[in-house]
């Protein structure tokens, strides 16, 4: 059964197409190839050294060399990865024969145009330093952990930005990564012989990556890895897949945990709710199949039984399934039903928690839900039952306790009833209250006021997007700060209410 057939939707359920690129990033093998550098400046020396580091035979055409360039050629004419050949004269048409790449540092536009035209006529890719008009390719800012190489380009718009990005990446990639990458290169063929393509092989390399960001490999690491590959290969012959319940958070992709991103990158299939943002889905593995399974209040949704059956069928087919839920799957996400179903079928289940909307709301408002001056407890309460009304078994006397912060999830359509029940249970009408919709997203809205105006505020904000309602003294600071900073914002009937 394909759940996608059950839901009409304009949400994409196939991998997103690649967004436009200013330039195609390409890593070019130059080992043993002839490279030409015209000019004897320091800038030309840097490019020559870069080409030599790639194993190229670098032919330098210049009558005069800078001190830096001269030292480079004298000290490294037979360098570790390539060699330099100095031609003490200007380049000519024959210079480009059997040449893989050509670079020049030209004093003026005329010289640059001549070099560019000659290289193009010979069919040689060309770059004239600091003259974009005469460049068929560009050099990026490089992070070198070879064979791991990272290059950053801003298409020439902001070289300083590229350098800043490089510095940040340098701090993220340990020097030991070089050794791990070399090890991966040496064992890849043997691993591929032992483990068939698909999820088991990816699982091996994901475990490898976990180790690669730790200490350097030891003398017995290689044999251990080969043993692991053999064991995984044998188990894969009879193994089933697994399901990971992943919290997508409230919408802002930057609030995902690292573990959630890794799960999305490892998935074969992603079953996602309608509330999951496109920015979060963009972080998934592009080859993963995406299946929309609805689950949005007030709209057509897949039956929970169908979602369970789909997860079971995919896992038994050996797939790595991610069940992607908005917020935290363990808070009003019906995760318990899904876990019970999967465990009953003998399917392994992992859980990756996410940031629940209440925590995101508190952060956006700059308030503590358990401020010691206002609240000693916090409650998360569902604002609707299976029938779409308020649950019948809520203890309203307890919820009206003044030193407790209460967050109502999915309470937009029952806001009037929530207000009436809390007032009837003794809560004061001037108790601070907040409403937020689409928390952390571009279309986020918020209202800060009192319990007295709760229902009217929900009507103004609307219920097209997920709504959270917060009630309690903990929101008093959010209310007062908004009153001073946003006096020009929309007012509801009560003078203390503000919408943003």
Shape: elongated
How much of the residues is beta strand, in percent? Answer: 15-25%
What number of domains? 4
In terms of structural class, how would the helical and strand content be classed? alpha/beta
Corresponding CATH superfamily of the largest domain: Tetrapyrrole methylase, C-terminal domain
Termini separation: 44 Å
Under CATH, the topology of the largest domain can be stated as Methyltransferase, Cobalt-precorrin-4 Transmethylase, Domain 2
Keyword list:
500 residues, disordered N terminus, NAD binding, porphyrin biosynthesis, sirohydrochlorin ferrochelatase activity, elongated, alpha/beta, Cobalt-precorrin-4 Transmethylase, domain 1, NAD, Rossmann fold, cobalamin biosynthesis, five-stranded parallel beta sheet
Would you kindly provide a brief summary of this structure?
InterPro entries: 4pyrrol_Mease, 4pyrrol_Methylase_sf, 4pyrrole_Mease_sub1, 4pyrrole_Mease_sub2, CobA/CysG_C, NAD(P)-bd_dom_sf, Siro_Cobalamin_biosynth, Sirohaem_synt_dimer_dom_sf. The chain has 500 residues and is an alpha/beta fold.
Structure description:
There is one protein chain. With 500 residues, the chain is of the alpha/beta class. It folds into 4 domains: 34-139, Rossmann fold (3-Layer(aba) Sandwich), CATH 3.40.50; 177-231; 240-355, Cobalt-precorrin-4 Transmethylase, domain 1, CATH 3.40.1010; 358-499, Tetrapyrrole methylase, C-terminal domain (Methyltransferase, Cobalt-precorrin-4 Transmethylase, Domain 2). The chain has helices at residues 42-53, 67-76, 109-121, 159-172, 177-194, 199-212, 221-236, 258-266, 278-281, 304-316, 335-344, 357-365, 396-399, 415-424, 454-461, 476-485, and strands at 34-38, 57-61, 83-87, 101-104, 126-128, 141-145, 148-152, 242-247, 269-272, 289-292, 320-325, 349-352, 377-382, 404-409, 432-437, 445-450, 467-471, 498-499. The strands form 4 sheets. It has a 6-stranded mixed sheet with strand order 13-14-17-15-16-18, sandwiched between helices. The protein has a 5-stranded parallel sheet with strand order 3-2-1-4-5, sandwiched between helices. Helix 9 links the parallel strand 9 (269-272) and strand 10 (289-292). Helix 6 runs antiparallel to helix 7 (221-236) and helix 10 (304-316) packs across helix 11. The longest helix has 18 residues, at 177-194. It is elongated and about 95 Å long.
């Amino acid at each position: 059964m394909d759940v996608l057939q059950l839901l009409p939707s304009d949400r994409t359920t196939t991998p997103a197409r690649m967004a436009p690129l200013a330039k195609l990033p390409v890593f070019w093998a130059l080992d043993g190839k002839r490279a030409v550098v015209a000019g004897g400046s320091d800038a030309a020396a840097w490019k020559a050294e870069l080409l030599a580091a790639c194993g190229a035979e670098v032919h330098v055409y210049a009558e005069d060399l800078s001190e830096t360039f001269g030292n480079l050629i004298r000290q490294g004419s037979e360098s570790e990865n390539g060699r330099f050949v100095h031609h003490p004269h200007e380049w000519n048409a024959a210079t480009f024969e059997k040449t893989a790449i050509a670079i020049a540092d030209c004093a003026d536009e005329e010289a640059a145009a001549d070099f560019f035209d000659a290289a193009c006529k010979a069919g040689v890719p060309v770059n004239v330093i600091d003259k974009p008009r005469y460049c068929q390719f560009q050099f990026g800012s490089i992070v070198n952990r070879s064979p791991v190489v990272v290059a950053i380009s801003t298409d020439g718009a902001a070289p300083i930005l590229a350098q800043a990005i490089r510095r940040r990446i340098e701090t993220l990639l340990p020097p030991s990564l070089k050794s791990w990458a070399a090890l991966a290169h040496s064992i890849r063929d043997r691993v591929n012989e032992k483990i068939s393509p698909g999820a088991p092989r990816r699982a091996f390399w994901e475990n490898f990556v976990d180790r690669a960001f730790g200490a350097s490999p030891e003398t017995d690491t290689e044999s251990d890895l080969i043993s692991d590959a053999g064991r995984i290969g044998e188990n894969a012959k009879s193994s089933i897949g697994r399901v990971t319940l992943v919290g997508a958070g409230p919408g802002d992709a930057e609030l995902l945990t690292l573990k959630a991103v890794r799960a999305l990158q490892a998935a074969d299939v992603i079953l996602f709710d309608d509330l999951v943002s496109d920015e979060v889905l963009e972080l998934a593995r592009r080859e993963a199949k995406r299946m929309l399974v609805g689950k949005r209040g007030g709209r057509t949704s897949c039956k929970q039984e169908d979602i369970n059956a789909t997860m079971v069928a995919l896992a038994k087919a050996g797939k790595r399934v991610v069940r992607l839920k908005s917020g935290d799957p363990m808070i009003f996400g019906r995760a318990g039903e899904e876990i019970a179903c999967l465990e009953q079928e003998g399917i392994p289940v992992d859980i990756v928690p996410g940031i629940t909307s209440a925590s995101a709301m508190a952060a956006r408002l700059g308030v503590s839900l358990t401020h010691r001056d206002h609240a000693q407890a916090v409650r998360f309460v569902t604002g609707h039952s299976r029938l779409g009304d308020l649950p019948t078994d809520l203890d309203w006397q307890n919820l009206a306790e003044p030193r407790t912060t209460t967050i109502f999830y999915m309470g937009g359509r029952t806001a009037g009833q929530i207000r009436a029940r809390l007032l009837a249970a003794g809560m004061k009408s001037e108790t601070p209250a907040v409403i937020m919709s689409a928390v952390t997203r571009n279309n986020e809205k918020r209202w800060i006021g009192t319990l007295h105006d709760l229902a009217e505020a929900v009507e103004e904000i609307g219920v097209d997007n997920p709504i959270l309602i917060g009630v309690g003294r903990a929101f008093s600071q959010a209310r007062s700060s908004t009153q001073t900073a946003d006096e020009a914002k929309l007012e509801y009937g009560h003078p203390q209410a503000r919408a943003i």
